[in-house]
Amino acid sequence: MEAFIRQSIDGTATPTNVGKRTVNQVNQKYNNKRLNIKTTVSYPIFAVRGDKHDTKVLEKGGIQKSTALHGVPSEKVAIEPRKTVGSVLNSNESFAIPSLKSAFKSISLLSLWYAGTVMYNVENKKALNMCPLPKTIAALQMLIGIPFFLTRWLVGIKPVPTIYTSNAGVQEENPKAGILESIKMKVRNGLCRLRNTINSHASLIKQSAMFSMLHLLSVTALGAGAISFVHIVKASEPLFVSAISLLTGSGSMSPVTFLTLLPILGGVSMASLKDLNFSPLALASTLASNVFASIRRIEAKKFFKQDLSKIGQNLDAANVSSLVTIFSSLILAPLSLLEISKWAPVYRSILYKYSGKGMLQLARHIVLSGFFYTLYNEVSFIALSQLAPVSHAVANTLKRIFLILTSSLLFKTKLTSAGLYGSATAISGAMLYSLSKHYYG
């Protein structure tokens, strides 16, 4: 590729071919090694654009120069092409292979996402049917993901995330101080470091608190009601995101986006009133989980809008998700102890209903549900980062439909015609909300 540069009256260089636009300042020498630019004698391969300057190009075999107004000459400059760039003639071939690879990658990603979501919900429901202890099961599912995150960091697949912590208020200890004074200083410095650590991790702690409650309430809802009913109600999450954003002043909404909330509200109401598997506990838990999910989403959005290089290192979406899951495990583990009085009766009930293999079967369901929970959360983060917003909105809608239909077939859940219409309306409204939010705000 060649670029013809002319020196104009005002001292700027003007590109005269359509192949490459290059701008050079006054008296700049064309010997920059980084750009691989050099002054050469060559033959034209592109037509020279005509404008107000008087440009003359010699025939092939001669030295090409151009003369601008007032006789200011400039030489022709050739920019050597990058060796990785292919010919224009085979552009169809060069773009065909990446598109096939991209399509295969997207299909594989969506398949893992859908399969992980379905398998988690199925294994989770089986575990809850055997052991109706949602706090215990939710905590175990979170804990199962921790070895995966730690292994990934130890092996080096992902860099270890780091959060910067200040030393504000920490005083240097005096070696000449007495024992009592030294103990007081250590306690004071320890409290200052604890305060600084909490302040530096404040956003992650908030996200973890919301995420732990979201997961606990979701597990409670799935134990109390049908999977299909719970996920129909979950489609109303945009209502809560919009309401909380408007109340806290952290977001705005266009009139078009507001109108998309109406089919969500109407569809969820229709499905809830006419559903044969209606459960007040499942409805209340799902709506409450939507509140925590909305707050967590808003907090995460605020976190990623910051300059993360000032907060820590290696804080990408996957690592932040891992940290939030670990912190959530620390919150849910103590909450599971609230069900400690029920452990023994449930254990005896499992042995009575399922004989000696009952505990092994329960353990398998809990481990698999925890594994698939970690898998589909990881894949959803990858999908969110690699798919376009519109594609992600459509894929998320199809995932919910696929999950509702699959769970209804596996657990033989009956859906009324009103329930089907309501779920279709709510899910369609959720997709329209995502699309409208992307295009109109």
Automatic annotation (TrEMBL):
Name the Pfam families on file. Answer: TPT
Instruction: Report the domain of life of the source organism.
Output: Eukaryota
Task: Indicate the transmembrane segments per the record.
Answer: 213-233, 239-266, 278-298, 362-384, 418-436
Entry-linked InterPro entries: EmrE-like, Sugar_P_trans_dom, TPT_transporter
Is Transmembrane helix set as a keyword in this record?
yes
Which SUPFAM superfamilies did the record assign?
Multidrug resistance efflux transporter EmrE
From the Swiss-Prot or TrEMBL record, give the protein name: Triose phosphate/phosphate translocator
Q: Give the way it sits in the membrane.
A: Multi-pass membrane protein
Q: Decide whether keyword Metal-binding is in the record.
A: no
